[in-house]
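Quick start: read one record
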Amino acid sequence: MMKKLLMGAVALATMQAAPVLAQTGQAQSVTIDVTGTVGSKCSTFSLNPISFSTISTSNSTGFATGGDSAATATASVWCNKAGAKVSFEHVAMKANNVTPPNASFTDTVDFTPAVKLGATDIAAAGTTVGIVADTLSVTASTNATTAIPVADSYTGTIKVTLTPGA
């Protein structure tokens, strides 16, 4: 009797642990979630140099008169997250080869840069542009001087930064 009871208990335990088999001819399906992450990013870009063909000077004082416009540099850019920001900074143009002989002369000609993203004017300290794909344009105009610029070629910089949203 004990043997029959033990065999019955083993059979019952085996039936409870065995998975239920699918019935023949019935479809079975399972849904699996698929996930991924795209990081916050802005495009890489480059801009051609911009140039003032000639920096205008006054016939009477020799000072730079200001208001000369440089050609515009453009690039297609994008940022893929809200909170993206565009900012810029500049360094005035300095004479490459000549040092002024006295205080009547200068080796520096400053300029005012202008940066736009599409139709949006960008502030130097930065403008939040959010999720965007548009044309970045950069130009500059010379400022007047209070001394005579030495005759030379001049070089300055404009640094434009695209910062992804946090």
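The two ends are 75 Å apart (CA to CA).
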